[in-house]
Structures are given as structure tokens and as C-alpha cells.
Design a protein that fits this description.
The protein is α+β, with helices and mostly antiparallel strands. The chain has four helices and nine strands, in the order βαβαβββββαββα. It has a single domain (11-134), classed as Beta Barrel (Small Protein B, Chain: A). The chain has helices at residues 20-24, 39-46, 94-107, 136-159, and strands spanning 13-17, 25-35, 50-51, 56-60, 63-67, 70-71, 88-91, 110-118, 124-133.
Length: 160
């Protein structure tokens, strides 16, 4: 498993990105998972009609499901369209599932959906991250650091 960087996934077409994941969680490890979808869901994802903001993964009976991943129904789907929000099965190896389950139970971590993308074979993939929820004071520190960085950049631009 690797750190969360854009260079990790070459030749990928990004569909959605969870901006709040880094703000609400301290992301420790990331992993890639396939996702079981219906045809109309894939067509809707090609149009980037989805929201990953509140998405998280839950382990039930040895399987991993992505909850709250909002995919807008395909406009030309007709009667065979999909519901917007439903649990979607993630495709992982058994040893990966066991490792994640152990980390969630022992360390109190959460599986968060970070980004969705098409890989080079045009398969939909979800990048998950094991995250530790941040406390309110941690979030304030994040905001302070971001504002300090912006202020430094502004002062450097004024001098040049």
C-alpha cells in the first residue's frame, strides 16, 4: 500500500475526488479496489455524475461494501436504471479484507473513499484509505497551517 499521491496511478481518468477526506481524517494507508456496478452506473460515471464526499466502506460477512457513494441515474437509462445510493460491493482479495478488518477493529480506523477513476483498461476503481478521525482541534490546526501558507505566498508575491 502506498501514500496518497496522484503519481501512484498513471494513465488514469479521474471521476470523483473526496476533498473532505484529508480534512476530516488523518489518512494512513491507501489501497485500490474494484467495484461491482450495473451498466447504467458505468455510463453515468463516464459523464462524471457522482459524489464521493460522504462515501465510506463497511465490512459485512467477509465482504466490503461502499456506502453513500452517490451515482446519479443515467438520463437515458429508462426502466432499467439504478437507484442513486445503494451499497456497492468492492472487489478485494480475502487477505486484504482480513487485514482491513483487523485494522478497523483493533485501531479504531475508518475506511474512507478517497477517489474514483477509470484505470488504463477502462475499469472503474476506487481508492480507499484507512483513516483515523481527526478531533476538532486537529481540524483547527489544519486550517491555521493552510492560512499561514497562503499568507506566506501572498507576501512573497508582493516582494517580487
Amino acid at each position: 500500500m502506498s501514500k496518497n499521491k496522484k503519481q501512484d496511478i498513471p494513465n488514469s481518468k479521474e471521476i470523483a475526488f473526496n476533498k473532505k477526506a484529508k480534512f476530516n481524517f488523518e489518512l494512513l494507508e491507501t489501497l485500490e479496489a474494484g467495484i461491482a456496478l450495473k451498466g447504467s452506473e458505468v455510463k453515468s460515471l463516464r459523464e462524471k455524475k457522482c459524489n464521493l464526499t460522504d462515501a465510506f466502506a463497511r465490512i459485512k460477512k467477509g465482504e466490503v461494501f461502499l456506502e453513500n457513494f452517490n451515482i446519479v441515474p443515467y438520463k437515458n437509462g429508462g426502466y432499467a436504471n439504478h437507484p442513486e445510493i445503494r451499497p456497492r460491493k468492492l472487489l478485494l482479495h480475502k487477505r486484504e479484507i482480513l487485514k482491513l478488518e483487523r485494522a478497523i477493529k483493533e485501531k479504531g480506523l475508518v475506511l474512507v473513499g478517497v477517489r474514483a477513476y477509470f484505470n488504463e483498461k477502462q475499469k472503474v476503481k476506487i481508492q480507499l484509505a484507512l483513516g483515523k478521525p481527526k478531533k476538532l482541534y486537529d481540524k483547527r490546526d489544519t486550517i491555521q497551517a493552510r492560512e499561514a501558507k497562503i499568507e506566506m505566498e501572498r507576501s512573497l508575491k508582493r516582494k517580487l
